[in-house]
Amino acid sequence: MSDAPSSNPAHGAASPDPSKPAAAPVGQTVGRGLAWVLLSFSASKLVGVALTVALGYLLKPEEMGTWAATLGVFGFMQSCRDAGVATLLVQRGEREYANLIGPAFWLSTSFHVFAALLVVVIGLTMLLHIPGKEEIGRTLMYCSAALVAMAPGTIAQARLKMKLSFRTISSITAISALVRAVVVLTGAMLGAGAISFALGLLCLGLFESIAMSIATKEKLWAHPAQPSRWPSLIWTVRWSLAITFSLSLLAVGDWAALSLTASAGVIGIYYFGVQLMMQAEQAIAGTAAQVLFPTFSSLQNDQTRLASAFHRVLRALSLLSSPATLALGLLADPLIRFVWPSGRWDESILCLTALTLFASFRICFVAPFTLLQGQGKFRGAFAAMATAGGTLFLSALVGGLLFDDPLRIAICTGGLLGPVCLLVTMIVAKQIGLARRKAFTGIVRPWLVAATLAIGIFLLDRWAMPEVSARMGWTTIPREAHLARLVISGSLFALLYAIAARIVLAEVLQDALSIAPARIRPLAERVLRLQASATP
User: What percent of the chain has pLDDT over 90?
Assistant: First the structure.
């Protein structure tokens, strides 16, 4: 689909009625839709960050761990709750809508109910038969109600996507994120613990289902169910369903594995560090996915340009994600000690640092996955995502079995997942004609520059703080000193990385400028004194 409006949209058609307003060009519609999606995504991330900060004050590690374990189980059920038919409905479009809406709506609703019943069974098993997992089981019982509440909203949202009502969807999802945050915070303040998260999901599901159903201006449930067609629909969307499940494996596989092997306190410390890392990861990878999928789809008939674009994307993603994630690991100590000075989450500091070491490779993994999807290679997309998600699940499972320590578990998961993502990326690169060496160096060079600087500043901070504490006579480092560490170390890292990138990674910077938004590209070129490379 073209991003630019057609110069003559009426060519070959009847003259438009001057009394009716002209329809917006498709490119403008898509552009506005993407803008609303990104705005909603950014708003949700801000709400998520604020919620994480607040809950760090209100919840204990055991309560946070109970929710993380619950979310691990719930995430798998949620991934397959609509049987993939919502995506099919959007793909088939208006031409088959009347024929599909009935069986799609009722099949989706049935899957929601079936997933909720599975959650109830798992919750009852934990509650009644597994010592130490009672609270997880109790929380899962509440989550089962949330799955049922989400049922109408799934197909209603698909219908709004078909109408290109991205502004409506974005507004509803942004408000629902705020509603959930308020409910979770209220529950936590009243002492509900991990159950407050489940109540937040329940309210989110109810709000989105009601609001989106009203926005469609249709009675989606009034269409006949036609259960005889359900098996063929499930077969049609089998790969979409498999990919969605593998995505959930990468998203919550570690928490699900730890729910079987680790104590709630250990899971809570680990989950807290992961949540901080995921804010940066989702901001970069989530935004990139919105752009990469249509970009790679448009190049499927031009293998040379596809390989070139893939190489540039890998380098640009690494250039951006390497300093972002490594800076988070570098600043974990002053950040956590300043924002949460009670010491409750100090154990997650080194855990977060270990998780961020190879996190850039995980973010760059969005490129091969969206490329395979954009090329219609769904088996390959599933294999790639299942490999990454399976690695995360198994490494967490082994880490939880061998160690009762969040840092060692983080070393297991972060130390294995990043290199596996890098390896899969190189394999996909070879399949489209890009040499594995070029894919490897494209990702690793920016990471090496950022890692060298981050390690150097990390060691400098570790050497300087005892010296400063001794001179100032501090027995306990004050909160203001941690803020100073945060500002000084962060500024020094940003400055040195900018200088090093300009000297060592000039070609990568030029590639990044070539795919930067047109409005900011001239300013960036003047600041960096570089010209964007020519786009092939």
Answer: 40
- The verdict on 267 and 232 lying in the same domain is no
197 with 123, same domain?
A: yes
- CA gap 510, 478 in Å, rounded: 43
Residue 359 to residues 251, 317, 329, Cα–Cα distance (Å): 13, 12, 10
264-298 helix and 366-374 helix, angle to the nearest 10 degrees: 40
Structurally, how many domains does the chain consist of? 2
Count of positions (residues) in the chain: 536
CB-CB contact of 334 with 358 (8 Å): no
pLDDT in tens, 199-219: 998 999 999 999 999 999 999
Domain of residue 205, residue span = 42-236
**175 and 100, same structural domain?**
yes
Q: Does residue 26 register a pLDDT over 70?
A: no
In a domain, 26, yes or no: no
Please check whether residue 123 is in contact with residue 137, taking contact to mean a CB–CB distance below 8 angstroms: yes
Identify whether 529 is part of a domain. Answer: no
The per-residue pLDDT for range 445-500, each reduced to its tens digit, is: 999 999 999 999 999 999 998 889 888 888 888 999 999 999 999 999 999 998 99
183: in domain:
yes
What does the mean pLDDT of the chain come to? 84
- 394 vs 389, 391, 407, CA distance in Å? 9, 5, 16
Judge if 78 and 210 occupy the same domain: yes
Q: Is residue 2 part of a domain?
A: no
Identity (one letter) of the amino acid at 287? T
Count how many Cα atoms sit within 13 Å of the Cα of residue 259 in the half-sphere of its side chain.
28
Q: Are residues 74 and 197 in the same domain?
A: yes
φ and ψ of 101, to 5 deg: -60, -40
